[in-house]
Amino acid sequence: MSHERTNRRRTGTWAALPLFLAAVLLGTTWTTAPRATPGPPPGPAEPVPAMGRAWPVGLRPLVVRAWEPPPTPYAPGHRGVDLSAPAGSPVRAVAPGRVSFAGRVAGRGVVSVELTDTGDPPLRTTYEPVRPSVEKGDEVAAGDPLGTLEPTPSHCPTACLHWGLRRGETYLDPLSLLPHWLLRRGPSRLLPVPG
To answer: Rounded to an integer, what distance in angstroms lies between the CA atom of residue 143 and that of residue 140?
Structure first.
């Protein structure tokens, strides 16, 4: 960036300062015009079907960190959920699909599965850090092993699996794939049959 453009940018910022201060003092909200994005506006989001039949690790793992969608594509957030599990635990597919990636990304094992019959673009689940036992192109059913949880350093207090869900470039809550009965904690209860 040239020195002249940098000075113009600084001048423009300082020129807006009196307007900002006036807005604060008068109790009004300072807004900026949204940036135009190329292409057509996005249509309504397709719902996520509760098609999962099993947790990716364990029977009912502890959710160490929940999904926290970022307000903008590059803002901080948590684009998946972290599930507590011991290193070496089997990692399973939560729903049927085809392995779209199995390998290493930034030194960590990653497996991605494109889910069957979930629209265009299809839903894709991602599991990491995983030592894959599958290869790209493999068909998997719900509950099929994808690999084992690696004992790599993590942002969790203990070993954990980061499980993500995307449709195209949009991150979604992977827990939405699981039916409500699978998400419930505590023992199952039988109710009396009337009559």
So the answer is: 8
Tokens of 180: 């409500």
| CB 103, CB 138: distance < 8 Å | no
Higher pLDDT, 46 or 172: 172
**192 — pLDDT class (breaks 50, 70, 90):** low
Closest CA to 105 of 67, 132, 78: 132
Give the N- to C-terminal CA distance of the chain in Å, as an integer: 81
Give yes or no for residue 21 having a pLDDT over 80. Answer: no
pLDDT > 70 in the chain, percent: 66
- What's the CATH number of domain 63-183, 2.70.70.10, 3.20.20.70, 3.40.50.300, 3.40.50.10280? 2.70.70.10
Nearest-angstrom CA–CA distance, 138 and 146: 10
- Give the pLDDT confidence score for residue 107 in this predicted structure: 87
Q: Please tell me the distance from the alpha carbon of residue 165 to that of residue 44, in angstroms, as a whole number.
A: 18
Whole-prediction pTM: 0.68
List CB contacts of 98: < 8 A, sequence separation 6 or more: 113, 114, 116, 137, 138, 139, 140
Q: Which of 159, 163, 92 is nearest to 126 (CA)?
A: 163
The domain locations on the chain are 1-30, 63-183
Q: What is the mean pLDDT of the chain?
A: 75
d(CA 1, CA 21): 29
